[in-house]
Amino acid sequence: MAxxxxxxxxxxxxxxxxxxxxxxxxxxxxxTQAQLDETLDECKRNDQEAYLIGHLLVEKGLITQSELLNCxxxxxxxxxxxxxxxxxxxxxIRFKGVEKxxxxxxxxxxxxxxxxxxxxTAVIGISGGGKSxxxxxxxxxxxxxxxxxxxxxxxxxxxxxxxxxxIRKRFSLLFQGGALFDSLNVxxxxxxxxxxxxxxDAAEIHSRVTKALRNVNxxxxxxxxxxxxxxxxxxxxxxxxxxVIRPDIILLDEPTAGLDPIIEKAIHYLICDxxxxxxxxxxxxSHAVPAIFDWCHHVIVLHQGKVRASGPSMDIKNSKxxxxxxxxxxxxxxxxxxx
Length: 339
Hints:
Mean pLDDT: 86
Number of helices: 13
Number of domains: 3
Order of helices and strands: HHHHHEEEHEEHEHHHEHEEEHH
Shape: globular
Low-confidence stretches: 1-18
Structural class: alpha/beta
CATH superfamily of the largest domain: P-loop containing nucleotide triphosphate hydrolases
Number of strands: 10
């Protein structure tokens, strides 16, 4: 009973669980203490990082990949419930009255929004509603005509180019199409940001690339080229490239676009797995509605260049707002008009 009470208190705190993945799997009944001890001992013997314990448990046959992902998803679901009850989390990124026009067309109209730190936030809305433009503002690729974009205590409009480049190094961006280089094999695609932006030696780059590919369950394909991979594998390679620099913030632009429902779910599981191990701040631009509500803590609905609603995913999913209801259900009749 005491153990259950402790877990409940952690879940309701709204804070990331302080325990590593292996311990959480144990407390959720996914593995036994003997299995955990055996795998941790192997980590020490082989000088492997303990955060990869889930992968080691699968390799040892102590748990299946499906069982591992389901356990992590169950834990993530409990965290979403906790976030709904207590969503007062410091903001990592803030938009203050941001306006942006292109060729005389107003895309962002006084945008006010906050991205909570160390959570997964989904930004949704109809096509052409300014979601990708919003993403580009977060890394300073686009500057607002009016208003401010803040990353922690840094106003991107007021810092020097050198400071902006330093902040950009905290970001990784997963592009909508993956954006892999066709002329480079998988290894060189993943290694590219390390070679271009760091002074790491070849041995350290090899170690990081190998671990990044292992994290997305793609060990052994380093010599393959993008055209030899399925769409889902290309997305996973792109995610490995986004993770290899060990960022603070990951931006994902339509990570499941063009994928079948099974691969879409696999990518969502992979993003969830990555979050549970790293606790990065993640922002996902997505049209995968209503599925995306199960895979994020926070949802921001953009409509006509403004925030229509912002809050815990379950609150937005159950919104009575006619615009949001029409978008979620995909109905043609409603306040959203199509020309």
